[in-house]
Design goal:
Keywords: Membrane, Transmembrane, Transmembrane helix. The chain contains ten helices and no strands. It is an all-alpha fold.
Length: 223
């Protein structure tokens, strides 16, 4: 059985090996992608669901290329290859369309799942409970795709979104315990980073990207 702590340990090692480079990539990602998604988050807290969804979708424009650029960087870091910050910007251009498609589809899925969860959670009957449970399962599965899909987009030589989503789903089904524990640990780390704030600006996104890449490499070797 795969050890879900193994990718985390290796990700921390990778982070310290290239701390200055990954700090720079992390800051760039936050500056590009953070503002619009922060606005969307606070709009959601204020009950402006549709406005929050619209802003989140607009946020895909900078976040898509930045996310795939960061994944391309951490792939080279995980493989121990030499790299500079210029590679981050080059990868943003190279994977722009893939980034928009992947992150955009994930955000659309999250919006739809969130709307359905909100709707069925207000129904006080067995139907509301059952449907809320199903949509909660869909939420976990959808987040699980994000664990593998961005990494596979940069690992595959000629990826298509359909192929990447299919393979990501297969990895989730084949390694459910490993994937679930990894997602839970990532979620806890993400919440801690949001509470402390400072890690978000300096290393949290880079570590999560490394963690995702290491987890993907781990299950691909096992497969």
């Amino acid at each position: 059985m795969l050890n879900p702590l193994l990718p985390l340990g290796r990700a921390w090692g990778d982070l310290f090996d290239e701390i200055l480079l990954l700090l720079g990539c992390n800051l760039i990602w936050v500056c590009m992608s953070g503002p619009l998604w922060v606005v969307a988050f606070y709009a959601l807290l204020d009950g402006l669901g549709w406005f929050a969804a619209l802003v989140a979708l607009v946020g895909v424009l900078p976040a898509g290329p930045a996310t795939l650029g960061l994944m391309a960087v951490v792939q080279r870091v995980a493989e121990g290859r030499a790299i500079t910050l210029n590679y981050f910007f080059a990868s943003m251009r190279q994977y722009a369309h893939s980034g928009w498609a992947c992150v955009g589809m994930w955000v659309v899925g999250m919006v739809l799942i969130g709307l359905n969860l909100g709707f069925y959670s207000q129904i006080e009957s067995w139907l509301g409970i059952v449907m809320s449970g199903l949509w909660l399962y869909a939420l976990v599965s959808w987040c699980g795709l994000l664990l593998y899909a961005p990494a596979l987009l940069v690992v595959y030589e000629q990826p298509t979104l359909r192929l990447v989503l299919r393979d990501s789903a297969m990895l989730l089904l084949r390694y459910p315990f490993f994937s679930l524990i990894t997602l839970v640990l990532m979620g806890l780390f993400g919440l801690l980073s949001l509470v402390l704030v400072v890690p978000i600006f300096f290393f949290s996104l880079s570590l999560l990207a490394l963690w995702s890449m290491r987890a993907t490499m781990c299950v691909r070797r096992e497969a």
